[in-house]
Amino acid sequence: MFQSIIDETRIALGGIRDFARSFAEPTLRLGVTGLSKSGKTVFITALVHNLIHGGRLPMFSAYSGHRIARAYLEPQPDFELPRFAYEAHLETLTSADRDWPEGTKRLSQLRLTIEYMGEGLFSRDSVARRLSIDIIDYPGEWLLDLPLMNLTYAEWSASMLGASRRAPRLAFAEPYHRFLAALDPSAPRDELQAQKAAQIFTAYLSRCRADDVALSALAPGRFLMPGDLQGSPLLTFAPLELDQARKTRRGSLHALMERRYDAYVDHVVKPFFLNHFARLDRQIVLVDVLSALNAGEDAVDDLKAALTSVLSIYRQGSNAWARQVLGRRIDRILFAATKADQLHHSSHDPLEAILASIVKDASAQAEFRGARIDVSALAAIRATREATVKQRGEELACIVGVPKKGEKIGASLFDGETEAAIFPGDLPENPEIANHGAGPKVRFVRFRPPLLPGGSQLGLGPSFPHIRLDRALEFLLGDRLA
User: Helix, strand, coil % (nearest 5) of the chain?
Assistant: First the structure.
């Protein structure tokens, strides 16, 4: 309780500081997260490029209504945060060897400022207003750590080991189970044993994340995305088989693991929550629903559990000015099913419905607390177009693009240069059918980024094609540009 009061006080003091800064210069802090390969880096790059260079955004009212005078990047506002490498990512996407940029591996930030006119008649005649958007990019794996703040080491160990003894984790946890069987938690602490335990446990988590399994609730997140903690003792712990009736023996392996778990929560998880996460105004959570669907019902259930667990930690609710003084709250959360360009447009609404079904319980909690929730299917950069192909007298709704070199469907091996038409399959209209693994599999092929005609090396000129990026912008920013 005492620690909670201290934490709430720190949040309140940060809220007063942020409110004072925002009062002088209106600022919105937008968090962008999602698990590995969900498309965070691409989303931010596409968002910024479309606003700066004039993309097609008909559903973004401030933009389509010609009320945005200009958008531009500003110097980094927070000295302790690395800058999101927008220009480098843009060059990767638009160079002659165009490819997708590397994914998010650490916390970063980018400030985008929009000059705009208000929506009212009198506002249009006044001086342009300004809104600075601080985009905070962080690995979704770190988000999975937040529930650890409410768990002791013994509770976390019991939870992790319990999950590892149920399918589908059981098949991959056998090496760790064998290691635990020969381990005595009450034996004297041994650094080599601790390191070995962490290595085997991390290998188990990594296997659970592989495409054929695609599980999501895999904490600690820094074990999979260590960032600058690679090799740190803070990551040298693992769950142990503990006798709850026996006291922790000083100098034991159990005591060592428990101390490192507590240090991980105190020095890694809580600072991330207090210094960054608790200061967000809006959040978009990018979700790779298609990979979970292809991996089966277990992956879908695990994704649902992970999102529900994480959302319980969000500081949700209205961001009225009186509340902001006591600490910001996330008042809008958008869940976005990414890679919609890998499906024909007839499956975009079913994809959205499937994600809405997955986050239904989590959304109900957030809305009860006063936050607005929306769900969308999108592709921040559309790598395909649509076409109809006749095959054996049947017309198939296909997507057309340039598959990456080495991609394969059946006997076809793609060279990375040749365009191909692919029938991806259709998602069922009933989301419950898809969630329970009864729907058809979607044929996944990784496509190269689209070629922008007339664009320079840094993509000046035409902006990236997209699917429903404008809808996402309207939900996340529209009210603040009215």
Answer: 45, 15, 40
